[in-house]
Structure formats: C-alpha cells, structure tokens
Write a structure and sequence with these properties.
Layout: E1 10-15, H1 22-33, E2 36-39, H2 58-63, E3 66-67, H3 80-93, E4 100-105, H4 108-116, H5 126-151, H6 153-156, H7 164-177, H8 181-184, E5 195-202, H9 205-221, H10 224-230, H11 245-252, H12 258-281, E6 286-290, H13 294-304
Parallel strand pairs: 1-4, 1-5, 2-3, 2-4, 5-6
Helix pairs in contact: 3-4, 5-7, 9-12, 11-12
Length: 305
C-alpha cells in the first residue's frame, strides 16, 4: 500500500536514450541542487549485472545518494507496478524533507508509471493467456511481434520488440477487450502531490552511434563476458532478456562468434536507442537540451523553481 502523499517538492526527471550521458548529468544536477537520485533504469536494479547495464560506478555512487541501483537480484520478481509503488513510498517516507529529487533512466514505461500512474487494465481470461503463451512457446517471439503488429500497430512502433513479457501483455489486453492496448494506455494521468520538471537529453545521431560503439568496447574490457557467464544459468529470466546478455548467451552456446556478438550488441543497442527516442518524443512535457549543455539545464531548472 502506498503511504499518504507527503512529498510535495520537485521531481526533476532526466530522460534520454542509452549512452546519452544521463548518469553524469543527473549527478551534476544533484550536486547543484543538493538532491538525491532515483534510478528509473529497469535493468540497473539488478546487482549481478552492473557492467552490462552501465550502472553508476562506486565512485559515482559515492558522490550522490542513489536509490534503486543494485537493490535486487536477477531472480527477484519485479515489475513496473511494483516500481511505481516503491518510488512513491520512498518519496512519501524517506524523502519528504527533500525539496528536490532527481529521477533518471531510459525506461520510459517506468518513468511514466511514477509521473502518471499505471493504467487500470483488465484481468485476462485464463484461456486467452494459455493460447497466447502457447503461441510464444510454439512459434517464438517473431509470432508475437507479428500478432501485435496486426492488433495494435501503434504500440508495435514503441514497444521493445525483444521483450516477450511486454508483447504478451499487450496482445492479451487487445484480445480481452477488442481495443488496441495503446488506446487503453491513454487514460487520464493520476494526480501527484509533487511538481515534475522533465529534461530530455538530445544527442546528434552520429555522436550517439560513436558513444554506443565505444561504450560496448569499454564494457567488454571491464569484464562483461565474465559477468554474463556468471548469470548464464538464469538466461530464461525476464531480467536478463535484454540487449547484451542475449547476444553473449548466443556466443556461449556457439551460435555466433565473440566478434559477431559484440557487433550485434552495438547494432541492437542503436535500435533500442531509436525506440527510446520514439517513446520520449511523444511526451510534450519534456524540455529538450543538447547533451553537453548542462549549464543551460541548470539555468532552466532554476527558472522553473
């Protein structure tokens, strides 16, 4: 249960694609405004995979208090609804006296859950669920992608097409209601007791591609392969159904070479970044800034305060 709303300060949300420098920017803003940071990255929650999720380093964690970084195990059952509940409780208990809190991450669904709330979607009939799961087990994720494309082409354009859990959920809701999932997700936002200031990080495409490629190389040097081997036994868990681990798991199974895995990670990360921007661009409340204009962000926030 979410505690009574007490936090009435400002929640500054830093959004942008992967490798856009959100962590560094959030830390600079947090130090400027004396704020703590909430991570809204749905994979940085997991303590076993800090390299592959580009989680804040120990040095960065020591600079500013962070929440929801390395707090879960990949074996824990966690979802966006629980995240909404946990963040609101955190704001309403431990951070009540903070005039400003910063939340940052690339998981648009998780950010929206905190800012707008989760839509009240219907319970799914057991038969629909069995048939949808059976489709996935028999024909794989491509079958789910094709099914969602027919039922809800709008949501197809923004969802992570490599996440079967989200595909299954959207398809189930479409079949249960006869209404596209994307329409049901457009309910009125829930009222929050705090003001929200959204900052978007804009990175030129060529710069972002270079940053993604360089970051993958650095992560490999830091021991990403070893990290992935340590969690390989959990490969079927949703927490590991993400870019980087899937490709490395395929390498471990001799389906592709290490070089191919590395290149696939770079390609799929670029595609993921594109989907992130598709999601963020739809949010008219985001105020966009160039990735290296931190001073302009500070000036804008001061004006809003």
């Amino acid at each position: 249960m979410i505690t009574s709303p007490k936090f009435s300060g400002k929640l500054i949300v830093i959004e942008g694609p992967t490798a856009s420098g959100k962590t560094g920017i959030a830390i600079k803003l947090a130090k400027q405004f004396g704020a703590e940071i909430i991570s809204a990255d749905s994979r940085q929650f997991y303590k076993e995979i800090p390299i592959g999720t580009a989680a804040p380093t120990n040095n960065e964690l020591n600079k500013v208090v962070h929440h929801f970084v390395g707090t879960l195990s990949v074996t824990d059952d966690y979802n966006v609804s629980k995240f909404e509940h946990d963040v609101l409780n955190l704001l309403n208990s431990k951070l009540t006296s903070c005039p400003i809190v910063i939340m940052t991450g690339g998981s648009g669904l998780y950010i929206d859950a905190v800012c707008k709330g989760i839509d009240n979607l219907p319970d799914i009939d057991a038969k629909i669920r069995r048939n949808t799961v059976k489709l996935f087990e028999k024909d794989g994720i491509v079958a789910l992608q094709e099914k969602l494309m027919k039922l809800d082409p709008e949501y197809y354009q923004e969802v992570d097409l490599n996440n079967p859990k989200r595909l299954l959920r959207a398809i189930e809701v479409c079949l249960q209601t006869g209404i596209p999932y994307s329409q049901l997700r457009k309910n009125q936002p829930q009222k929050r007791n705090f003001d929200i200031i959204k900052i978007g990080i804009n990175v030129p495409r060529d710069v972002l591609i270079e940053r993604i490629n360089n970051r993958v190389d650095v992560m490999m040097q830091l021991g990403w392969e070893k990290e992935a081997k340590a969690v390989y036994k959990y490969k079927n868990l949703n927490s590991l159904n993400t870019v980087g681990y899937k490709e490395l798991f395929a390498f471990f199974e001799n389906k592709i070479t290490f070089v191919q895995a590395s290149e696939k990670i770079k390609t799929n990360t670029r595609r993921y970044a594109k989907r992130q921007m598709t999601w963020f661009r739809k949010d008219k409340e985001i105020n966009w800034f160039n990735y290296n204009d931190v001073n302009e962000m500070i000036k804008f926030i001061k004006g809003e305060l």
